[in-house]
Design goal:
The protein is mainly β. The strands form nine sheets. Strands 10, 12, 13, 14 and 16 form a five-stranded antiparallel sheet that branches. Strands 19, 21, 22, 23 and 25 form a five-stranded antiparallel sheet that branches. Strands 2-7-4-5 form a four-stranded antiparallel sheet, with no helix packed on it. The chain is globular. The N terminus and C terminus are likely disordered.
């Protein structure tokens, strides 16, 4: 994803707080002094978009909003507020009532929707509630052909998203939800790439998303090609959007497919469940060169090379896939893709489709390649039972601090420190807050050591079906690096 527009409000506000007076430059001005070491300051405003949850009459959706207690604050941060407001859908109408308004860092807030007409939401947070603000949207459909758990962390608006793992096959129903948080229209292009390159699309270019509105697009309407493994590229040519893909499989449930991390030569897909009955890998090479990748599974006991799938060749501009079957075999693991030749790394994006259960009792979820937790990450919606946290340290040992917040109805936070061995995946059940009532958030902070990647699985089994959802844990980017600036008024003497 394109991060060039991320947290610009926070950067600007923080820079103003640091400098006080802007540096003057222009023709005839003396050379600027070397930039000083950057300072890390909390962002002061965050934005999120939550897609319309489901059109099923049997759906119940819970929203959990949470901001972790920050390490630093500034006098300009203030108390702040965080809320979600419905945006217009196809009807062009939206209600104004806020959902799950948040008032205090460290204590989650919840809201719910129980009808098939629940709209998409636009969220904003400022002041002390902005750094690390996250919202989890969890939908339970307890009957009907779409039964399952659909979970997603609401998305930060951006101008580019990659979704490997999409499909237009007859047994899939994949919708991309485009939500515009701004006061001007956004224009979006949708591109699909299969095993032979770009697919011909009839209506994927120039999709207009009106201001503060959402537009769902069924991927199978974009092309006549029926393909099981595709990569969707979402690009906003004007404006920005939040983008999420709802992928449903006939008779096997479905889930939200999050966008993959930015293209990179090496990628990590953390938290494959121990009891996964089928794992399918989908990757796409975004650059001009083919990607030759080594495939490794990092389990609790160390690195394993999947038999018959030691490598994956991904041609430039094309999608490749591999059926890894039940490769975890009873141990939670993380998949790591690295270049076969480190000197010839080619950027890729990747995702996994995970199946649990068998026959009529199957359920699916998705794990995209995710970025490392450089400072902190949070999963907002956790229950008394059913949450599993998976953390992997691919290259070097690391130490993390894991905090279970107070519950939505009260309780006392619990914190523990965990050491991760290099080249392994650690799966654990987060500690339940003391005296907790309701849902709680789990925050992972990187303390020391090498890079750490993580995900959270929420299992809500029903009627013999292992219903579940998995959310990756990328860094929450609650802090922004702002270079120190020095006052330079020498131009006034010219």
């Amino acid at each position: 994803m394109n991060r060039s527009t991320l947290s610009l409000f926070g950067v600007t506000a923080a820079l103003a707080a640091v400098t006080g007076v802007a540096v003057l430059t222009g023709a005839g001005a003396p050379p600027a002094a070397p930039a000083a070491k950057a300072a890390s300051l909390p962002v002061e405003r965050s934005a999120l978009t939550c897609p319309a949850p489901s059109d099923s009459d049997f759906a119940t959706t819970t929203y959990t909003s949470f901001t972790p207690i920050g390490k630093t604050t500034t006098s300009s941060t203030g108390a702040g507020s965080a809320k979600l407001v419905p945006v217009a859908g196809a009807s062009g109408k939206a209600k104004s009532k806020a959902v799950a308004p948040l008032s205090t860092p460290g204590k989650p807030a919840t809201g719910s929707a129980d009808t098939a007409t629940a709209p998409a939401l636009l969220g904003t947070a400022d002041g002390k509630l902005a750094p690390g603000w996250t919202v989890q949207q969890t939908t339970v459909i307890d009957t009907g052909p779409d039964r399952g758990v659909l979970g997603t962390a609401c998305t930060q608006p951006d101008s580019e998203f990659w979704f490997p793992g999409t499909s237009t096959s007859a047994d899939r129903s994949d919708y991309v939800h485009l939500t515009n948080p701004d006061d001007t229209a956004a224009v979006v292009d949708l591109e699909l790439y299969g095993t032979n390159g770009a697919l011909t699309t009839t209506t994927g270019n120039g999709i207009t998303v009106p201001p503060k509105s959402t537009v769902p697009v069924l991927l199978s309407t974009l092309t006549a090609t029926k393909a099981a493994d595709l990569t969707l590229h979402v690009t906003a040519r004007t404006g920005r959007v939040g983008a999420s893909v709802l992928a449903s499989t006939a008779k096997a449930g479905g889930d939200w497919l999050p966008a993959a991390a930015d293209p990179a030569g090496s990628v990590v897909l953390p938290g494959i469940p121990a009891d996964a009955t089928d794992v399918r890998l989908v990757a796409y090479a975004t650059g001009q060169d083919d990607a030759d990748l080594k495939v490794r599974l990092l389990s609790a006991s160390g690195a394993i090379t999947p038999a018959g799938h030691e490598t994956l060749h991904v041609k430039s501009g094309m999608t490749a896939s591999a059926d890894l079957a039940d490769l975890t075999k009873g141990e939670t693991g993380s998949l790591v893709l690295t270049p076969s030749d480190p000197k010839a790394a080619a950027p890729v994006v990747a995702a996994l489709r995970i199946t649990r259960g068998k026959g009529a009792n199957q359920e699916t979820a998705y794990i995209p390649a995710t970025s490392a937790i450089t400072d902190r990450a949070t999963a907002a919606d956790n229950r008394a039972k059913g949450s599993t946290l998976s953390l992997t340290a691919p290259t070097a040992g690391a130490t993390v601090k894991i905090t279970s917040s107070a519950g939505t109805g009260g309780g006392t936070p619990v914190t523990k420190t965990v050491t991760l061995k290099a080249g392994t995946t650690t799966a654990l059940t987060p500690a339940t807050p003391t005296g907790a009532k309701g849902q709680y958030a789990v925050t992972v902070e990187h303390v020391s050591g090498g890079p750490v990647y993580g995900s959270r699985m929420l299992a809500l089994p029903l009627n013999g079906i292992p219903m579940f959802t998995i959310q990756p844990l990328p860094d929450d980017r609650g802090l922004v690096a702002v270079p120190d600036a020095e006052e330079n008024l020498s131009i006034l003497n010219n």
